[in-house]
Amino acid sequence: MSRRNDKNLLVGLDIGTSKIAALVGELKDDDQIEIIGFGTHPSRGLKKGVVVDIESTVQSIQRAVEEAELMAGCEIHSVHAGIAGSHVRSLNSHGITAIKEVEVSQADVDRVIDAARAVAIPADQKILHILPQEFIIDEQEGIREPIGMCGVRLEARVHMVTGAVSAAQNIIKCIRRCGLEVDDLVLAQLSSSYSVLGEDEKELGVCVVDIGGGTTDLAVFTDGAIRHTAVIPIAGDQVTNDIAVALRTPTQHAEQIKVRHACALTQLAANGDTIEVPSIGDRPPRRLSRQTLAEVVEPRYEELLTLLHNELRRSGFEDLVAGGVVLTGGSAKMQGLIELAEEVFHMPVRLGVPNYVIGMEEVVNNPIHSTGVGLLMYARQHRFARRPELAENLGLKAALARMRSWFQGNF
Predict the structure, then answer these.
(1) How far, CA to CA in Å, does 108 sit from each of 137, 223, 379?
(2) How many C-beta atoms surround the C-beta of residue 152 within 10 A?
């Protein structure tokens, strides 16, 4: 097996409710990412994006990582991991500081961001991201890169994302139990936005919606910066459950029926088409029309899209997203969903597939891997900056854990 240069490898670990995916990307000389390996495994042990069974989650992560290592011909040591769940909160904050010298330095930027983060957050929440929206120097607004500019007073507007301390710790614990380190925890919809949105869309204003298995994650961009994030605890698993209950079929068969035959808009399902529905127990399978299935699926997707539309309206940015809505994630691939979303949102809607990377087509052209590909792109952009709050946990604890496991294995 040929060994690759580890310095040029980026690894994204998408820990979802329905599947865990590990993607290995190689950084080329032209700064482009080539997908050289990926592994997926059904997710056991997560509910609505949150770990509820550590042992099962560890096993699923291990299987996905081993598959990715085998395909890429490399050893994985550390990952950028996604985090989601209804425990995620967000707020916009504002900080002000005096510029020490005449020119803005990196130290001034760090100080003003520290000032912006000085807001009261609950004790059970930790800051996941502080995302600068714009800087203001002496009342001059709209500055993206303040370093080197002259002035007296520096202000920053930032978007802060927080998550439950326990949820973040459990994800880190599961990854470490697999013998891996965590370079960063990245919000799922933020990483998806890296892979499915263009710069022009972010400038014009766009709402990206990642519909997964357990949660639906929303992020709003205007003027090139993230303005609002939210999590809706309804997603593909509820649709599967509705099919299982309405058609009286086991959950695993309901999932297969959803993926192969479901349609989110009743009028698009041809009345003559029929599907075979396995029954519970030893009863014989039945045949039902595809339209009957659509009548089960459509109300749930309509409810989800209405909740998303209400969230967008409540954020105050509904009139500013001229670029419309981009749907991505595994549960966004359903036939008729784009048309249904356009009816609900009254604006253009498109399906977002991962862009800006090369390599395996089954990854690159599939919205189910938007978060995983986005994690690689996030890793490329931040690969020299390990977050201090993660770094302080990593060194000593990891060394002690390795020593402990060595002793347990040898004595």
Answers:
(1) 11, 23, 25
(2) 9
Instruction: Give the span between the Cα atoms of 371 and 353, in whole angstroms.
Output: 10
Give 6's pLDDT tier (boundaries 50, 70, 90): low
pLDDT tens-digit map of 80-110 = 999 998 899 999 999 999 999 889 999 999 9
Give the contacts of 136 (CB within 8 A, at least 6 positions apart): 143, 154, 155, 156, 157
- At 393 the pLDDT is 47
Dump pLDDT digits (tens) for 31-69. 889 999 999 999 888 888 889 999 999 999 999 999 999
Strand partners, 403: none
pLDDT of residue 281: 82
Q: Could you tell me which residues come within 8 angstroms of residue 103 by beta carbon, excluding any fewer than 6 positions away?
A: 148, 149, 150
CB crowding 264-297: b at 16 or more within 10 Å, else e: bbbeebeeeebbebbeeeeeeeeebebbbbbebb
d(CA 125, CA 239): 30
Instruction: Say what the alpha-carbon torsion angle 303, 333, 261, 17 is, to the nearest 10 degrees.
Output: -70
Query: Per DSSP, what are the bridge partners of residue 211?
Result: 216
Say if CB 148 and CB 137 are below 8 A apart.
no
In which element (H, E) is residue 135 found? strand 125-137
Question: Within 10 Å of residue 370's Cβ, how many Cβ atoms?
Answer: 31
* Residues paired with 215 in a beta bridge: none
250 SS3 class: coil
Residue 244 CA to residue 259 CA, distance in Å, equals 13
Q: From CA 158, how far away is CA 113, in angstroms rounded?
A: 8
Asked if pLDDT for residue 116 goes beyond 70, the answer is yes
State the DSSP string of 365-380. Answer: T-GGGHHHHHHHHHHH
Higher pLDDT residue, 398 or 200?
A: 200
**In 144-299, at which residue ranges do the beta strands (DSSP E only) sit?**
153-164, 181-187, 206-211, 216-222, 225-232, 274-277, 286-289
Query: In this structure, are residues 47 and 214 in contact, taking their beta carbons and an 8 Å threshold?
Result: yes
Q: Which two tokens stand for residue 294?
A: 């659509």
**pLDDT, mean over the chain:** 88
